[in-house]
Amino acid sequence: MPKEPFNFPKADILVIDDTPENLNLLSAMLTEQGYKVRSVTKGSTGLRGANAVPPDLILLDVNMPEMNGYEVCQHLKASDRTREIPVIFISALGDVLDKVKAFAVGGVDYITKPFQLEEVLARIENHLTIWKLQQQLQAQNERLQQEIRDRAKAEEKFTKVFRSSPNPIAIATISEARFIDVNPSFLKMSGYCLEEVIGNTVAELNLGKEAVAIAQTIQLLSDTGPLYNQEFELSTKSGEVKTILLSIELIDLSGVQCALLIANDITERKRLENEFISLVSHELRTPLTSTMGALDLLGAGQLGTLTEQGQKVLSIATTNTERLIRLINDILDLERMKSVKIFMQKVKCNAADLLIMATETMQAMADKLQVKLIVHPLAIELWADPDRLLQTLTNLISNAIKFSEPGDTVWVSATLAEHKGVELRENDRSSTQSTLLPGFLLITIRDEGRGIPKDKLQIIFERFQQVDASDSRNKGGTGLGLAICRNIVQQHNGKIWVESILGEGSTFYVLLPLAAF
Ligand code: ADP
């Protein structure tokens, strides 16, 4: 008979039979088929062998002196080491096989003489397959159990981190900006209890004038990407205003798109910083203004004619003084904007006018640096502070020109960006009415300049953050422009972000709601 390939190579079969002819026959037959066969003539020897090296299957004679097959099987099933091994009983010609007993003591099958080779092999292979599958199932089960234990441990770890984090953390749905979980630090900072927070939207919780902006940021998260360390003011339940740095990241919780909000309460730090900044700025502005006046006098030649070398030194002093004044003005600007005293003067204005005005203002700079400026305006009305938006656009265009090479192009364009699927519900949550958010204006300022490294894309919107420490020296900037832009855009309930490929260019995006809400 041809030797068939066996699925489980090296299957080890122990044959226990006191009749040498049987043993020889089975042994030869199985070896021929590629099995590894061990044969013994006594039950006790078989038990020892099975215990020493458990086989994959045992063929066990029923009738044996000393210890019969049933007893051997009982011993096998009593030991942890051999319990799982499938046992097939063999009954010789004329033996009385008690089938019920064979199964009762743990046998899986029986073979009666005369052996029919195909039948014996089929039964052996069946039981080996079943046994292997059982083993696999058991291993899989153990792996799953371990996985469940590991997951439970990880979950416990993360729950503990969430609960005991000193940073306020909240989870809200993206669709409605509705709180689904917050940690104790969040409750401590906001003054609300858990029941007052869960189920409410960010806008409903009365977190102050910037709550709508936060809700907006959450709802636009899938479009505009995560937010890192943006400054917001938050009112607590008792009405106290806190300054927080807020990071928002998109997470998927069992198929539900959620926002993970991590806050950092910087109220005290901010107060000290503000005090320090206004003190230093005011103290510096007065002497600097008078220095500038003195330099102007020198430059005008009213105090005598300067040598060529003197003119050069004076020009350096003037450039640097101008830069310092710009820096201080930017700092004061930013602080003034942040303090509640100055509000945006929002009026109806036309996006096309703003874009054209901004590019016209920057045209001279573009010409000087041999950068081509192309504008694609969009005539659409929006509710905004035109001066502040102009300031934002000129700053972005100036940066785009500044970080381009001669011969490069800067494109300024605007398109309508209807934001699908974002809904603001009425305050009354039982109401089925929902108001669609207004459309958005998306302004893009694209350049072919040096680009911005990936790890700086977020941070450049923070104060004094520059890609290169020498940027302020070489390019005359202050590192405050983008912080001011972000602030202005934020006060319009909009969003500003940048995409860039190093060495290929950057695109700054300003997304603004068309109508006030
Ligand atoms: P600055 O006054 O230095 O321009 P900004 O806040 O406007 O300050 O910009 C911060 C930094 O971001 C810049 O110093 C520069 O490193 C980087 N940056 C801004 N715009 C661009 C741009 N279009 N291309 C490359 N880098 C830019």
From TrEMBL:
Domain Response regulatory: 12-128
UniProt domain Histidine kinase: residue ranges: 279-516
Catalytic reaction list: ATP + protein L-histidine = ADP + protein N-phospho-L-histidine
Sections of the chain in a coiled coil: 130-157
Enzyme Commission no: 2.7.13.3
Modified residues (4-aspartylphosphate): D61
Entry keyword set: Coiled coil, Kinase, Membrane, Phosphoprotein, Transferase, Two-component regulatory system
EC top class, as a word: transferase
Segments forming domain PAC: 228-278
Gene Ontology MF terms: histidine phosphotransfer kinase activity; phosphorelay sensor kinase activity
Domain (PAS): residue spans on this chain: 154-205
Signal sequence segment: none
InterPro entries: CheY-like_superfamily (IPR011006), HATPase_C_sf (IPR036890), HATPase_dom (IPR003594), His_kinase_dom (IPR005467), HisK_dim/P_dom (IPR003661), HisK_dim/P_sf (IPR036097), PAS (IPR000014), PAS-assoc_C (IPR000700)
GO cellular component entries: plasma membrane
Role of this protein: Photoreceptor which exists in two forms that are reversibly interconvertible by light: the R form that absorbs maximally in the red region of the spectrum and the FR form that absorbs maximally in the far-red region.
Name the UniProt record assigns to this protein: histidine kinase
Species for this entry: Nostoc sphaeroides CCNUC1
